[in-house]
From TrEMBL, chains A, B:
<dbReference type="Pfam" id="PF00763">
    <property type="entry name" value="THF_DHG_CYH"/>
</dbReference>
<keyword id="KW-0658">Purine biosynthesis</keyword>
<keyword id="KW-0554">One-carbon metabolism</keyword>
<dbReference type="InterPro" id="IPR020630">
    <property type="entry name" value="THF_DH/CycHdrlase_cat_dom"/>
</dbReference>
<keyword id="KW-0511">Multifunctional enzyme</keyword>
<feature type="domain" description="Tetrahydrofolate dehydrogenase/cyclohydrolase NAD(P)-binding">
    <location>
        <begin position="144"/>
        <end position="282"/>
    </location>
</feature>
<dbReference type="InterPro" id="IPR046346">
    <property type="entry name" value="Aminoacid_DH-like_N_sf"/>
</dbReference>
<comment type="pathway">
    <text>One-carbon metabolism; tetrahydrofolate interconversion.</text>
</comment>
<protein>
    <recommendedName>
        <fullName>Bifunctional protein FolD</fullName>
        <ecNumber>1.5.1.5</ecNumber>
        <ecNumber>3.5.4.9</ecNumber>
    </recommendedName>
</protein>
<dbReference type="Pfam" id="PF02882">
    <property type="entry name" value="THF_DHG_CYH_C"/>
</dbReference>
<keyword id="KW-0378">Hydrolase</keyword>
<comment type="function">
    <text>Catalyzes the oxidation of 5,10-methylenetetrahydrofolate to 5,10-methenyltetrahydrofolate and then the hydrolysis of 5,10-methenyltetrahydrofolate to 10-formyltetrahydrofolate.</text>
</comment>
<keyword id="KW-0521">NADP</keyword>
<keyword id="KW-0028">Amino-acid biosynthesis</keyword>
<dbReference type="InterPro" id="IPR036291">
    <property type="entry name" value="NAD(P)-bd_dom_sf"/>
</dbReference>
<dbReference type="InterPro" id="IPR020867">
    <property type="entry name" value="THF_DH/CycHdrlase_CS"/>
</dbReference>
<feature type="binding site">
    <location>
        <begin position="170"/>
        <end position="172"/>
    </location>
    <ligand>
        <name>NADP(+)</name>
    </ligand>
</feature>
Length: 294, 294
């Protein structure tokens, strides 16, 4: 490979924009046909500034797409029972079609118990155990938003994972684990690496598709990228720095997601798309057609 | 490694026997303390001869351990709704502590829907979506029996998966996928291989721990076994032949499960252990102590 090789960038901003537009027209259609606008409830515990910003951003994007945003803020001192009670009420409320519990919920709450209070048909953020199993078994259901966005990006760039070796670095419940299962469902050979992995470099060097999801700046060395690889950098560290040493990686990869503008924008786009799908389903307008794919 | 090297055999028969004995004493204790014997309901659809044999074997082992066995047979023509109705009734029956739906259920039934009718606290065979997610996230719950048996065997032979590269060949919902997640939970680096994997041999050769779960006789070539590896052969093909070419594999591996007498006996042992745990929990005698570990 010549010194001047530069990987093509996978443009998440543009794709996310198109998905958001499609979600907006579908939301308008739903509102017109049913008389009810799709509604996403956001739930935030405490006032962590990053979480406040994320929730604000998600709500603004909803409103721009014609999705009603309902917000519920609980004090940092809220108990698991209080949070579960609030989420259960939203799960039962026919006016709410999707529920997003902003992670993390703080030290006083059993986050898993709280997540499980989200009704499966409203789990548009793909965080429940049922959604994870559905992703793992190739069953219908909502996907975790970042993994779903990654799969959609691969599709957009005509990357068929079948028979490719996908290496996922990171194993969180909402990113590493589900994206590995989705890749496995698309017939990739999948390796999960993490903090206990020995010889990480030698495994990364085998990756036809690399997903970096560790949250450590430039953790993946560019020289470990296999020539011609597809590199998905799902890290987002302070200063707009990804988990991959992008300068070197770009000289070797075939396709790479920039940070910012790669995986990041896809997450909210998937959230919007799944919220309108949930609303359509609950309002009896389900068409089987996904705005993610339009 | 000298020509005369022979891997040590991992004796599943003996370990399974000890677990079954422990389950039997715990069953007796539960019966004495609560006046109610633990009860496993087995459900069989149709009369496939292998399935009939498996169910008969499981029932006999239950009875030997002092676990009441209740059997429900449905005709091969049963519908999903009929099967779900029957399983739901067992889920609600306070006299039944565990439910096993024998796989496969035949072509007329949506097996996933049927599995999901099993109440989580009675899912002693570890087949529900919730149990899979619990295994994946390291949460309390019942494990799939064969994966659970494999993990227990590794423990018995002092194999700590942390930092080791575990390669799982096969990705079924009740064997390959969950055993990979359990190994990941014990901090192994985990690779899933399957029918679409390219260059299988080169991946198998990296395996510190190899789990073969494909159901194809001698599918894993002995010369691909990494010297010193731990080889778990979960295959059981006609003629007592495993998925691994054992003759060559034994000259290279450190530990290997024989077929038969390795993984096979562990499956029922885990079923018995989880049934008495379920009964103890439901009868208010839960001690947090697992007979699997005793």
């Amino acid at each position: 490979m010549s010194q001047t090789h530069t990987a093509r960038l996978m443009d998440g901003t543009d794709l996310a924009h198109r998905i958001s537009e499609a979600s907006a027209s579908r939301a308008a259609e739903i509102t017109r046909e049913s008389g009810t606008a799709p509604c996403l409830a956001t739930v935030l515990v405490g006032d962590d500034s990053a979480s406040v910003t994320y929730v604000r951003m998600k709500r603004a994007r909803c409103e721009k797409a014609g999705i009603v945003s309902r917000h519920l803020g609980l004090p940092a001192t809220a108990t698991t029972a209080e949070l579960v009670g609030a989420i259960t009420a939203l799960s039962q409320d026919p006016e709410v079609h999707g529920i997003l519990l902003q992670h993390p919920v703080g030290p006083y709450i059993d986050e898993r118990v709280a997540f499980e209070a989200i009704a499966p048909d409203k789990d548009v953020d793909g965080v429940t155990m049922r959604s994870f199993a559905a992703m793992s078994f190739g069953l219908p259901g909502f996907v975790s938003c970042t993994p779903g966005g990654i799969m959609r990006l691969l599709e957009e760039y005509d990357v068929d994972p079948a028979g490719k070796h996908a290496v996922v670095v990171g194993r969180s419940a909402i990113l590493g684990k589900p994206v590995g299962m989705l890749l496995l469902g698309r017939n990739a050979t999948v390796t999960y690496c993490h903090s206990h992995t020995t010889g990480l470099g030698s495994i990364v060097r085998q990756a036809d598709i690399l997903v970096a999801a560790v949250g450590r700046p430039r953790f993946i060395r560019g020289e470990d990228i296999k020539p011609g690889a597809i590199v998905i950098d799902a890290g987002y560290n302070p200063g707009n720095i990804g988990d991959v040493d992008v300068e070197t990686a770009r000289t070797r990869a075939n396709l790479i997601t920039p940070v910012p503008g790669g995986v990041g924008p896809m997450t909210i786009a998937v959230l919007l798309a799944q919220t309108v799908e949930a609303a359509a389903e609950q309002l009896g307008l389900g068409s089987g057609r996904s705005v993610l794919r339009s």
